Amino acid sequence: MPEIIIPGPEGRIEGRYHHNSERGAPAAIVLHPHPLYGGTMNNKIVYRLYQSFANAGFSVLRFNFRGVGRSLGKFDDGIGELTDAAAALDWIQQQNESASHCWIAGFSFGAWIALQLLMRRPEIEGFVGVSPPANMYDFGFLSPCPAHGLVIQGDRDDIVQEPAVNQLVGKLRAQKGLTIDYKVINGADHYYRNTMEELIRNVDGYIEKQVDAFNARPRIRPDKKRRTMPVDDLPMLED
């Protein structure tokens, strides 16, 4: 789990990276919760998601958004953080040019950023969103959502309310050809303090199932050319 520094839009981005040297190993990035409320790449849920991907044979990166830890810059209301995530995805793809597929995951604010990046990068083929803040941010950009994924939510979360996440999942499931797994964990608060192992069991099981399905299906490899995201091309995001 070496410390790395990667180039970002505002200068260095601090991260931790696990590399799987097996040719064709998939790649993933994991995004942390809100920087202004203590969110960092060392958040326990972010770390456990990172471990889940590493244990499943992925090359995986977690990193600090701008202004967090040793990453340069300052909080940018989600716009700059989205470009940070795009830079992180570029970096891990450069390190894993033969990756068979690419995933993204995020917790809370990180899930919101992750799903926005999913819409802009067609090479992302799977996602895990833990407690996406559907009661705080507009997720209307997921129309249509381009990839299958897993959403996990606690029923005792007093920050992200379950009914709002349930409604979001319902809208996604209504899209033709899209499969969204939704797991509500009973007794879980926003930080899954007493339910962390159940959270991770669900994540591990989903990743294993989807990777097996991916490896079993015949496919034509898509164009892996990376897409850049000029800041001027990004829509303004709601606070």
Characteristic key phrases:
5 helices, alpha/beta, about 240 residues, about 30% helix, disordered C terminus, 8-stranded mixed sheet
Summarize this, please?
The chain is of the alpha/beta class and 239 residues long. The protein contains five helices and eight strands, in the order E-E-E-H-E-H-E-H-E-E-H-E-H.
Your description of this structure?
This protein has five helices and eight strands, in the order E-E-E-H-E-H-E-H-E-E-H-E-H. The protein has 239 residues and is α/β, with parallel strands linked by helices. It has a single domain, classed as Alpha/Beta hydrolase fold, catalytic domain (Rossmann fold, 3-Layer(aba) Sandwich). Helix 1 packs parallel to helix 5 (196-216) and helix 2 crosses helix 3. Mean pLDDT is 91; it is low at 220-239.
- Determine the N-to-C terminus distance: 34 Å
The amount of helix comes to: 25-40%
Strand order of the largest sheet: 1-2-4-3-5-6-7-8
DSSP helix count? Answer: 5
- The counted number of beta strands is 8
What's the helix-strand series?
EEEHEHEHEEHEH
CATH architecture label name: 3-Layer(aba) Sandwich
The CATH homologous superfamily: Alpha/Beta hydrolase fold, catalytic domain
Any idea what the shape is? globular
CATH topology: Rossmann fold
Strand percent estimate: 15-25%
* Major sheet description: 8 strands, mixed
Q: Whole-number average pLDDT? A: 91
Rg over CA atoms, rounded to whole Å, is 16 Å
- Could you say which structural class the secondary elements and strand pairing correspond to? alpha/beta
Low-confidence stretches: 220-239
Q: Can you identify the CATH class?
A: Alpha Beta
Number of domains: 1
